[in-house]
Amino acid sequence: MADPSSYRPKPGQIPDSPGVYKFRDEHRRVIYVGKAKNLRQRVANYFQDLAGLHPRTRTMVTTAASVEWTVVSTEVEALQLEYSWIKEFDPRFNVKYRDDKSYPYLAVTLNEEFPRVQVMRGAKKKGVRYFGPYGHAWAIRETVDLMLRVFPVRTCSAGVFKNAARTGRPCLLGYIGKCSAPCVGRVTPEEHRELAEDFCDFMAGRTGTYIRRLEKDMMQAAEEMEYERAARLRDDAEALKRAMEKSAVVLADATDADLIAVAEDELEAALQIFHVRGGRVRGQRGWVTDKVEAVDTSGLVEHALQQLYGEERGDAVPKEVLVPALPEDTEAVSQWLAERRGSQVSLRIPQRGDKKDLMATVQRNAQQALGLHKTKRASDLTTRSRALEEIAEALGLDTAPLRIECYDISHLQGDDVVASMVVFEDGLARKSEYRRFQIKGFEGQDDVRSMHEVIGRRFKRYLQEKERTGEWEEQRPTDTPADEPATTGPATGPATGLAPATGPVTGPGPAVGLAEDAEPREDDGRPKRFAYPPQLVVVDGGQPQVAAARRALDELGIDDIAVCGLAKRLEEVWLPDDDDPVVLPRSSEGLYLLQRVRDEAHRFAITYQRAKRAKRIRSSPLDDVSGLGETRKQALIKHFGSVKKLRQATIDEICEVPGIGRRTAESVAAALASTTPAAPAVNTATGEIIEEDDGGSS
Questions:
Q1: What's the pTM value of the predicted model, to 2 decimals?
Q2: β-bridge mates for residue 120, sequence order
Q3: What would the 3-class secondary structure string for 646-698 be?
Q4: What distance in Å separates the CA atoms of residue 523 and residue 520, rounded to the nearest whole number?
Q5: Cα 274 from Cα 357, distance rounded (Å)
Q6: In the chain, which stretches have pLDDT less than 70?
Q7: Cβ-count burial of 252 within 10 angstroms (0-12 exposed, 13-18 middle, 19+ buried)?
Q8: Cα dihedral: 252, 258, 263, 264 (round 10)
Q9: What pLDDT score was predicted for residue 208?
Q10: Which residues partner with 285 through β-bridges?
Q11: What stretch of H or E contains 131?
Q12: Over 402-462, what HEC string results?
């Protein structure tokens, strides 16, 4: 690991003008490229205290061995040079978008003597006109088949073309009128090129001219009583209309625009781009990237614009580019786009209307693409095995944690405090064993205390169920197979080890004298209650939450379960009694799995908390107050925080809420005084408050 101070430039050595800088490692390989309005200020930011740097930036500067820079005249030149260097050096610490699949394009090879229409994938070639990308190659072929009636452009390969020219006989398409057969001289090279250019104009959105021309020629042929020609022209116009119908109109006024949306988490980002030409969606593509540098949404958008339009010129750059966030140097990026197009380009965030609605659709596609990417990554057995091994190695575990439980706390300013527990087995979510808790007995935003209570309650039940299961095993008759379910009836309580059943086991007892609360089993022989522990407990939080979880386990005498926490801000893994976190590599599959587990626990907790809060508001005692609508009820709850605090307020304090008069305040106070708060459900056998559990639904 290099010390950044060893290659830090001397004060005043770096100019304060615009430019581009490169970080190189000890082997002189370029590992990062960046641009700046002011080189001196930007480069100096990399040489501050390492503790203050983002983890990814810290890794980059400690990997580098030198830094160098190039001064340019304007910010636009800096943007262009940065793009050129990233493409040339492929630095490992720069964001690199990769296609989440190989998208096909409709290509017209205008660089050939006889242009050809075909499906193309991969890198774009100079002199070839591209349309798309399309979701499927068959969609391109259907469109081309319709349009060849009107624009009979060559579609054959070079070998077929040369063979037809040698024999003097065209291919089948030439005989059925879907190729002008330039191979046998039916049209001149100039006439064929004109057909190809008309084909490109139609695909670019200039459709009205050709359809009106065909309809005019059809009417003229009918007047001249050339009915066969009129019918052919009618069919040609219908074919073009059907080709247009394959892409629905989404924007009015024949808009040409590209819409870019971003979905991201701490480690990865997915981009979706809709290409709209002539008001119709002509193509769609998506990228997925690892966030190898400390970059926000604005930075991701800027990198996407560079990759999208770095090699494009003319009409390939649309008049409008709609983005979710503007780049840091919006003016410079807009000017760079305008230079590539040859005219003004509007770079903005849509605020209202059809464009904002379409942007929401693109955003949903980006979120689905990121989710699908994560699902594919998580479903790979080899990847999951590697993730578990990396976690075991990083945390110093003897074996891979095949069962992981993760806990998260959720509340709204200290009210409606709830917790979630999610379970991952072999790296996959086991939703049937998710559980959720209500936390009562204290108020306030005390996540540490809440975490201690939840862990204590869960593992206290684990110890009780372990003891109960052991008693049942001892009393099992010798002629009963170990994996055979007991013959007792179902328990009336929830099938979980986190809350005691609300009644004894019912139904006829077994043939021998088993314990009254004998443990029913699943079909696979496992207890329905949690009578076995996880190998790893993950908590959403840093050192305080981890310490609380460890303390709860110690109080129960449990010392064979590993505990760690994942802090969301920097994705650091905290262990009990360690002053410094464990920093897993950015590309680590172990970190990716821990992040998925943590995010799932957070989702499950916040979903329950919101549902609980909505239920409380809907079933509020305020519903009985005459003349008190939803707006003023919500204002009261928001002002006091809860019905409990509102019940304790005086009439004068209630009058302080905007929109609440004294008569209404008196009605509210009277309604609350006439009702008593519901007592929590208590198990009569143990005196414990019964947790609210969930069998996986959220």
A1: 0.46
A2: 105
A3: HHHCCHHHHHCCCCCCHHHHHHHHHHHHCCCCCCCCECCCCCCECCCCCCCCC
A4: 10
A5: 13
A6: 1-2, 96-103, 132-136, 138-139, 205-208, 240-254, 267, 292-293, 376-381, 413-415, 441-445, 469-532, 568-570, 613-620, 623-624, 675-698
A7: exposed
A8: -160
A9: 65
A10: 273
A11: strand 129-131
A12: CEEEEEEEEEECCEEEEEEEEEEECCEECHHHCEEEECCCCCCCCHHHHHHHHHHHHHHHH
Separation CA 406–CA 593 (nearest Å): 12
Rounded to 5 degrees, φ, ψ at 356 are -70, -40
Cβ burial of 505 (10 Å; 0-12, 13-18, 19+) is: buried
Cα angle at 528 between 527 and 529, to 5 degrees?
85
At 54 the three-state DSSP class reads: coil
Count CA atoms closer than 13 A to 90's CA, side-chain side. Answer: 2
- Contact call for residues 199 and 145 (beta carbons, < 8 A): no
- Dist CA 494 CA 437 (whole Å): 13
What six digits make up the tokens of 157?
A: 């390969």
Question: Strands 536-540 and 435-438: what pairing?
Answer: unpaired
C-alpha distance from residue 541 to each of 51, 206, 410, 566, 597 (Å): 19, 57, 12, 6, 13
User: Residue 570: which of 98, 22, 50, 41 has the closest Cα?
Assistant: 50
Sheet containing strand 105-108, strands side by side: 117-120, 105-108, 129-131
Q: Which residues are CB-contacts of 98 (< 8 A; sequence separation ≥ 6)? A: 287, 288, 289
Residue 268's pLDDT is 78
Phi and psi based region of residue 419 (left: phi greater than 0; alpha: psi -120 to 50; beta: remaining): beta
Q: How far apart are CA 107 and CA 308, in angstroms?
A: 17
Task: Please tell me whether residue 466 adopts helix, strand or coil conformation.
Answer: helix
**Cis before 318? omega within 30:** no
Three-class SS of residue 275?
strand
Res 496: pLDDT:
34
CA 548 from centre of chain: 31
Tokens describing residue 599: 């995010």
The helix/strand/coil state of 598 is helix
Tell me what pLDDT residue 532 has. 65
- Dihedral sign of CA atoms 476, 482, 487, 492 in order: positive
Q: Which residues contact 38 (CB under 8 A, 6 or more apart)?
A: 16, 17, 18
Tokens of 431: 């939703």
CB contact at 8 A, 287 and 100: yes
pLDDT for 406: 92
Please write down the long-range contacts of 505-508, taking CB distance under 8 Å and 24 or more positions apart.
Answer: none
Q: Which amino acid is at 321?
A: V
The Cα–Cα gap between 184 and 160 comes to 12
190 phi-psi bin (left φ>0, alpha ψ -120 to 50, beta other): alpha
Interior/surface letters 617-637, b for 16+ CB within 10 angstroms, e for the rest: eeebbbeebeebeeebbebbb
Burial per residue of 469-494, b for 16 or more beta-carbon CB atoms within 10 angstroms, e otherwise: beebeeebeeeeeeeeebebeebebb
Kindly give the residue spans of alpha helices, DSSP state H, lying in 246-323. Answer: 297-309
Angle subtended at Cα 12 by Cα 10 and Cα 13, rounded to the nearest 5 degrees: 60
